[in-house]
Specification:
The chain is of the alpha+beta class and 268 residues long. It has helices spanning 9-36, 197-203, 205-208, 216-232, and strands at residues 38-44, 47-50, 58-59, 65-66, 71-74, 79-84, 89-92, 97-101, 106-118, 125-129, 132-136, 139-146, 150-158, 160-164, 171-174, 178-182, 193-194, 240-242, 249-251. It has four helices and 19 strands.
């Protein structure tokens, strides 16, 4: 007959597994809470915040929390900046309306212009507007929607995946110095064009009227790469000029162009 006490190894192993599970659950909960912790860090003039269904949204104030499901809007001269706990930043131009969902990791752009800065190694951010979504886990760029007329996505550094939410497999991986211009009801994404990064950095109000971005050096590095390619003649940016509230990218011709024959609208 064996009178030895039962070994404690199975019990220790069970406790160890339980502790590991508790630690993993705690880390997951803390990470989720961190992702949802977003604050207003800049306010200029008319900026409103509150649930989308609110009859009278309140004026936003610096330091105020933005929660999942909230909507934020800016007036004709308003601008705002939101900062996540992981240092993701979104800046809203004038006449912009956005709301948040999916634990603050999805932004729905109803109207206006948004600059986004997503540090590499974070949870990422997805911005949806009409039939298009732009997602990244490390990039700085700008997305703009003007009613039913156009949507624009520009990438300053990093990479952004643009895709159609209503068509599986229709996507475009965009790189620094690329811009995509299309209509909100697009069914096939057009090829991106090139734009002058340095010009955007000098003219975009979401950059010019705010403190320097944390990704400033990364953007400057992309500027230098692009300038070298332009000097070699291997990269010719489109004749795009940035005006107004956010991007407001406009095609301009350096010299008067002769009248063109009417063409079928392709969504470009």
């Amino acid at each position: 007959m064996n009178n030895r006490p039962p070994t404690s190894a199975p019990r220790a192993e069970s406790w160890g597994r339980g502790l590991l599970i508790c630690l993993l659950l705690t880390a997951t909960c803390l990470n989720a809470a961190q992702l949802q912790e977003t604050r207003v860090t800049q306010v200029a003039k008319d900026v409103k915040l509150g649930p989308p269904q609110a009859a009278a949204p309140r004026r936003a104030a610096v330091g105020e929390s933005v929660r999942d499901g909230d909507a934020i809007s800016t007036g004709a001269a308003g601008r705002s900046e939101l900062t996540f706990a992981d240092q993701t930043i979104t800046r809203l131009g004038a006449k912009t309306i956005v709301s948040f969902s999916d634990g603050m990791r999805t932004m729905d752009l109803v109207e206006g212009a948004v600059l986004f800065q997503i540090p590499k190694g974070t949870g990422g951010l997805k911005i949806k507007t009409a039939a298009i979504a732009a997602a990244s886990t490390g990039a700085t760029g700008i997305i703009e929607r003007h009613g039913q007329f156009y949507i624009k996505v520009l990438v300053l550094e990093g990479t952004v995946r643009c895709y159609l939410t209503n068509r599986v497999g229709e996507s475009e991986l965009m790189h620094p110095g690329q811009i995509l211009i299309t209509k909100p009801d697009v069914t096939v994404l057009p090829d991106p064009a090139d734009f002058d990064i340095a010009r955007v950095m000098k003219t975009c109000l979401l950059i010019r009227d705010f403190p320097p971005l944390l990704s400033q050096r990364l953007i400057e590095s992309e500027e230098q790469k692009q300038s070298a390619l332009i000097a070699k003649g291997t990269d010719i940016p489109s004749n795009l000029v940035i005006f107004g509230r956010g991007t407001l990218v406009t095609l301009v011709s350096p010299t008067p162009a002769p009248p063109r024959k009417p063409q079928t609208n392709t969504g470009h």
